[in-house]
Amino acid sequence: MNIFETYFRSLITQAQGLTRKLKDKDGLDGVDPISIYGEMPVHLQRQHNLIDLLRDEFTQQIDLIFVDDESFVQAFIMKYEDRQNIYISKNNACWARLYACKELSQMLLYSEENATHTIDDIDELLSSLMSSNMDASSNNHQITTDNITYFGAIEFLLPSDTIAALLAKKKKGASNNEIAKKMLVPEAIVDFRLSNNGIKLFEDILKK
Length: 208
Known about the structure:
The chain has helices spanning 3-26, 50-58, 93-109, 119-130, 141-157, 163-171, 176-183, 187-193, 196-206; strands at 61-67, 75-79, 83-89, 115-116. It is α+β, with helices and mostly antiparallel strands. It has one domain (3-206).
């Protein structure tokens, strides 16, 4: 197993465990989206969220701070001795959930690369993977350090144990846009995760 696969499997496994804990706490089943920081609309309110769960796991204060500044990077995490602050540029709820999960994934990997600069970062990554222009299973350290946390975010937002049900919805006529709205994620994430390349990437590495 190469560097990418090792980090990928470690991060996804951790994300799966945390997602299951949240679903168990809130009695969720099937394809119900989890709460990341208490952002859920009224009709989907949850008692627990991912940031609170990680506060307990890390026994450390974690604060999410929204920044209203167009020049600000999309997301950034500052680590202090007694706390970690996650700064996120104001976006719609779907993108904010993605960026929050991406930075929380940084915490799980203890990565030194701690900023998400532009929306184009993830668009370029997912487009390359979907078109097979990037070999995600290669021993490319740049792919590992710069992009691995996006996959952790995807696992939090579209857990692997929901993919079969989401594909069944597609087969019955649901569009990726409709699935994205239901799961409160950017449509680009659904496009990738439910694509043949997205399914193959997760399945091939997690089965090793």
